[in-house]
Write a structure and sequence with these properties.
With 315 residues, the chain is of the alpha+beta class. It folds into two domains: 116 residues, Ubiquitin-like (UB roll); 158 residues, Cathepsin B, Chain A (Alpha-Beta Complex). 28% of the residues lie in helices and 23% in strands. The strands form three sheets. Strands 6, 7, 8, 9, 10, 11 and 12 form a seven-stranded mixed beta sheet that branches. Strand 9 and strand 10 form a beta hairpin. It is elongated.
Length: 315
């Protein structure tokens, strides 16, 4: 028995349905969809596929896999038009009919084509190089914890070659010192590093900030044709990908695809509301120079100021 997940789109917005399995029936599916959308079970119309087409849900005893549904697909739920059969007066014939009803379902207009799949988080190791591993994943589709070395070198070369842009005021340390620091495996990446790698790879990198429920777009002004998404909880980065119905994944999206961008916005809001972020005042750190355990950003900054130690790792 396999768990199934679907994206449901209706007049109430977009929601995720995760309470069904491969053995669930069409009748059960209709009950869940009715609960999510507020449409009466008897009047539910479900469209699926690309372009969206009405799904046959007439037999409640069928399993949802028997009617061709696969996990990750998008279900568009609408309400059937019910004809009034109580009137005895024959209505006047319509002057014009643009399109006949299909299988008893009223014509659907302005249906927004939906891409099957659900935006998901891929968890990568918390090894001080999570940003670089995450970028490697969205660019290549696999977790490779060795890519940080090359990316650190790319960043160091860019910074070393532009002292005007990458001044001490911007970097927080002298240019040469930063170039040495960023190439150490224990050094964390952040906004500066994302901006440089966005430019180097020629792709917009959108960081979904779950702490503030916003998306910070790097390379937005460059009009790149593609974008990728990273999830940031205040300390740790993870890549985002689209899990498709055929089992494949998509990590790079056309820049004009605003559907996936809105999904990322919704994910950020949901993550913040469920407090899926790191409290910077409580997270644990370890000084990689003297092994002292520290709690919170303020304590780490105080320790760095007192000891001149500038290398910290996650605990």
């Amino acid at each position: 028995m396999t768990s199934l997940a679907f994206k449901v789109k209706s007049k109430n917005g977009q929601q995720i349905l995760k309470d069904l399995t491969s053995e669930s029936t069409v009748g059960e599916l209709k009950v869940f969809l009715s609960s999510l959308t507020g449409v009466n079970v008897e009047r539910i119309c479900v469209l699926c596929g690309y372009p969206p087409k009405p799904l046959d849900i007439s037999n409640d005893s069928n399993t949802i896999t028997a009617i061709g549904l696969k996990t990750g697909e998008t279900l568009i739920v609408e309400e059937k038009t019910v004809l009034n059969t109580e009137t005895t007066q024959k209505p006047d014939p319509p002057k014009e009919k643009s399109k006949p009803e299909d299988n008893g379902v009223a014509p659907h207009q302005n249906i927004e084509p939906m891409r099957p799949g659900i935006l998901m988080k891929k968890v990568v190791p918390s090894d001080n190089s999570c940003l670089f591993t995450s970028i490697g994943f969205v660019l290549n589709g696999k977790v490779d914890t060795t890519v940080h070395s090359l990316m650190r070198q790319i960043i160091a070369m860019e910074v070393a070659g532009d002292h005007d842009t990458y001044s001490e005021a911007m970097l927080g340390k002298p240019n040469a010192e930063y170039c040495s620091w960023i190439q150490q495996p224990s050094s964390w990446g952040g906004a500066i590093e994302v901006a440089i790698l966005s430019h180097f790879y020629g792709v917009e990198m959108d960081v979904v900030d779950t702490l503030n429920a916003i998306i910070n777009r790097f390379g937005e002004d460059k009009n790149y044709g593609q974008r990728v998404f990273l999830l940031f909880d205040g300390v740790h980065y993870d890549p985002l990908y689209l899990e498709q119905s055929d089992g494949g994944i998509q990590t790079i999206f056309p820049a004009e695809d605003m559907d996936v961008y809105r999904e990322a916005e919704q994910l950020a809001q949901e993550a913040k509301s469920s407090r899926q972020f790191t409290d910077l005042n409580k997270f644990k750190l370890k000084c990689m120079v003297c092994d002292k355990l520290l709690t919170g950003q303020v304590e780490a900054q105080r320790h760095a100021k007192e000891t001149k130690h500038a290398s910290f790792g996650e605990v």
